[in-house]
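Weekly puzzle thread! Below is a chain. First person to post its structure in token form gets bragging rights.
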Amino acid sequence: MQSGAHHSGGLSGVNDPGASTRPDSLPPLAWPALLREAIRDVGELCRRLGLDPQEVAGAEGAVAEFPLLVTASFLSRMRPGDPRDPLLLQVLPAAAELVAQPGFGDDPVGELGCAAVPGLLRKYHGRALLVATAACAVHCRYCFRRHYPYADGPRGRQWWDAALQHLAADPSVSELILSGGDPLTLPDAQLAALVTDAERNPALLRLRIHSRLPVVLPERVDAALCDWIAATRLRVVVVIHANHPAEIDATVVAACQRLQRAGATVLNQAVLLAGINDSVEIQLALSEALFAGGILPYYLHTLDPVRGAAHFAIPDARAVALHQAVAARLPGYLVPRLVREVPGATGKVSLTGPGDC
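Winning reply:
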């Protein structure tokens, strides 16, 4: 088990993925170029981290089921030469993914039956979730949408118009959630146009953006993104996703502070993962690192039972005991709510108290 301390990084050339081939005089790459240069090959991942390919045996088989994808920025926070690094384990394909486990399926939270119109999910009162894109900047191996049928869904402005028209006809919806994939992989002009159209609906009060990019590609939080966030009349909440304190470095804090200056509230949600963050010390360090960067811990999810991720699961009793130990050592505002998403429930289900969240 790794300690809760931050990694020192130290990979030569990883913070700038083109450092070995681009002259120092050239300006840093913009985020779309950095995203295009994300690592997709297991051999390249091993080379960049100094890993013996034998230490990651079975990865190639799992890649055929769910491709590898990880940014150089996220890679730079991993310990070179350590096949058990907690950040690496979140993205490294493993042979265990191919072992079928009872109770683990392709639609673990029952989303496929919740579409009000194609791509717009209605699960909880007052909120609607738009699956805005299939694209991500990193493929987390525990992702509950790793088998989501993105290819069957609609794309383009006409699709978004249909979703927004549905929301305009229902004044009970006050919050629009942008999800995916990762909505921040979309161009800012596209996102700004979507939000401009959405805010014409007087019933909408809030825009929530679920994104891993401020963590795995902090360069994404640029002036263009912050400009349209600052311009909307909607109250913006950005929910980032970090599972381990080593993910929170100075670049991530700076990105989140830029979002805050643009008027966004920044929260974090994490997933409790065996071998990665299933210790009291790591959870304490994660909450402290988040708050030091001005980010509030929000949810700590138990693993959604998605096919291919059973090796990350932790028994409920252990999860509750861990959460109670964290709550005994931190003020309440630093303790994320331990929750599970249950198909058909009216909200996230708390594992530590009555009611939905």
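Puzzle host: Confirmed. Bonus trivia for everyone else. The radius of gyration is 20 Å.
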